[in-house]
Automatic annotation (TrEMBL), chain A:
Protein name per Swiss-Prot or TrEMBL: Large ribosomal subunit protein bL32m
Keyword Ribosomal protein: yes
Source organism of the structure: Elachura formosa (spotted wren-babbler)
Classification lineage: Eukaryota, Metazoa, Chordata, Craniata, Vertebrata
Subcellular compartments: Mitochondrion
One Gene Ontology term from the biological process aspect of the record: translation
Gene name of this polypeptide: Mrpl32
Family: Belongs to the bacterial ribosomal protein bL32 family.
UniProtKB/TrEMBL annotation, chain B:
Lineage: Eukaryota, Metazoa, Chordata, Craniata, Vertebrata
Top-level lineage group: Eukaryota
SUPFAM superfamilies attached to this UniProt entry: Ribosomal protein L22
Main location, first listed in the record: mitochondrion
Keyword field contains DNA-binding: no
Protein name: Large ribosomal subunit protein uL22m
Subcellular location: Mitochondrion
Amino acid sequence: VLVQVLSPLPRLRALLQHCWGRLERGLRPGVFRGQSPPCEPALAVQGPALVPQGINGAEVPSLLEGVGVMWMAAPKQRRTIEVNRCRRRHPNKLIEVKRNIDVCPECGNLKQKHVLCGYCYAKVKEETRLIRVEIHKKEGGPFNAPTVETVVLYEGEKPTEKDEGKRIIERVRKRPSWFVQN
Amino acid sequence: AGAAWARALLGWARPERWLLSGNLFPLSCIHTSTSLQKIGKWEKKNRIVYPPQLPGEPRRPAEIYHCRREIKYSKDKMWYLAKLIKGMSIDQALAQLEFSDKKGAKVIKEVLLEAQEMAVRKHNVEFKSNLHIAESQTGRGHYVKRIRCHGKGMYGTMKISRCHYFVKLVEGPPPPPEPPKTGFDQAKEYVQQLRNRTLVHTL
């Protein structure tokens, strides 16, 4: 293949012709003594990759791994901050104002309409825990629960006729207003 | 001569920002920070002292600035809560935050209660319910990078984010919400813009 290089600069043209001449003749091994011969390919072919394998080996998957890597969805453009803000500040992403908050008539704290008042519930829970401590003290161990009912009596209260066969638990405090006696 | 020089220097240095109270001698207020840590701009806003108002002026509403730094929460997630309570009265804001499921709601509630107490004690606010939230914002705190282990020996860097929360309480009932812009208002504005056009660089 003869390539005609016509460049406006005569020096460049002369250089290119000299190089081409060298390539055509081929370099004599005797030129470079004591050095390794230059690694010039005698024939270079420009074409598609002959071996269907990537450099890492992970770019082109074999059919066993499945067709998933090359055809994954990926963003094409960076989302601008304006677009991001439109999405993040859309009304459906903002927190809604709750309209079901009321005042508990017992303690005056806030409560949701369909939920028990948190303060009152905590109060009752604490009293129940203390009653259970008294029960534990009376029973003295697991598996000792009696087969009769239990009645809780506070200070200054006597068991009535209805509480004949029942187990009595004493609590050392005044009866709380919310714990109505039968 | 030394006193005059000091007075001139303080006059240049805007004395209303340095005088904490009228009883203290001005020169002793220069070293106000207790430690070498930088005091943020939001905290300094509480220190401005306005000159006394003239008899005819309307009463200036009290402004209370409060913030909390380095909250272990994301600033984007905290922003939603800040946006929720912007413009509400303090009671309504506390009610909304109490029943919100978010982690930042608890923190913001504490900040609001602290600010309310500060307002009553130090900033001469008469009724603690007569406050509304004028501004509520979040800021980015210090981030820290850590290694997060994935499967198959892979590692990624995760960032542990922190945020600041700033709130400004103003005395008085909350301002009424702006009515949404109607088409008629927009049309009126457009016509006004057309009428405002003039010729420039001419006689």
